Amino acid sequence: MEPSPAAGGLETTRLVSPRDRGGAGGSLRLKRLHHFTLAGGYLAHSLAIMTDAAHLLADVGSMMGSLFSLWLSTRPATRTMTFGWHRSETLGALASVVSLWMVTGILLYLAFVRLLHSDYHIEGGAMLLTASIAVCANLLMAFVLHQAGPPHSHGSRGAEYAPLEEGPEEPLPLGNTSVRAAFVHVLGDLLQSFGVLAASILIYFKPQYKAADPISTFLFSICALGSTAPTLRDVLRILMEGTPRNVGFEPVRDTLLSVPGVRATHELHLWALTLTYHVASAHLAIDSTADPEAVLAEASSRLYSRFGFSSCTLQVEQYQPEMAQCLRCQEPPQA
Fold first, then answer.
1. 160: which DSSP letter?
2. Phi and psi for 272 in degrees, rounded to 5?
């Protein structure tokens, strides 16, 4: 049984900053930069620039996928999709990571072939020009994102945010978090672009050091693959229905046991549909003198307020002494 959060005054509105709606414009700017960088890398015969372009392509795909999943997640739940379409965000992230790994694998193979045979030519001028423009573009995007951070304010959030969807109260500072994450990501791209620029300057003035191009490709490919590790870890955790990040099994169990009247808890399950949409379900064994409705309301209130769960399903039942020997009532072992 799942009580309505509104009954306890816990229903609130999940918020999204209007600045985040500028993601479409940002993705278009990245798309134009990706097209230019890819064309410049092709004309210069530079794998390092193509690696930078592949990273930008992954960024574009990630942004477009996020916008699409944002739209898709607003669709209502159906009898087939009873939880709605929230997990489309996770599938989009997985597709972005897989595509980046595939493109990077091809570029690594080409770089290895170049180091073996050395029968290639680099257009130093075209490589230098393309790398310089890429650095300037990343500097501009970093500046724009730095200025786009929401100002500190003690006023009402109503002017700063617009409703996205209804749900239980949870700590979800989307405006600050998304801009900060984008800013950090652009700084990483900027560092990679500076590395490509350094390689292009070396090749422009010392063409005999053209091996700097495939060597740079190896280094930046490793950085690009490494940058996907946190995303891949989160995606696999969600798809495997693992416990949400920053939500521990023991704290949730102890919170439920601290509710007056609760003697034991079992069948406790914690999982996530997305990084911010967390779900919990459990059976609560209560004393015969306890009020089931009061226990249910108090337990739900504590889960919503302390852990920010988006959905909680709790079943109340009378405590029986034989529950201590029941195999299904035992806690799962630590991983």
1. T
2. -135, 135
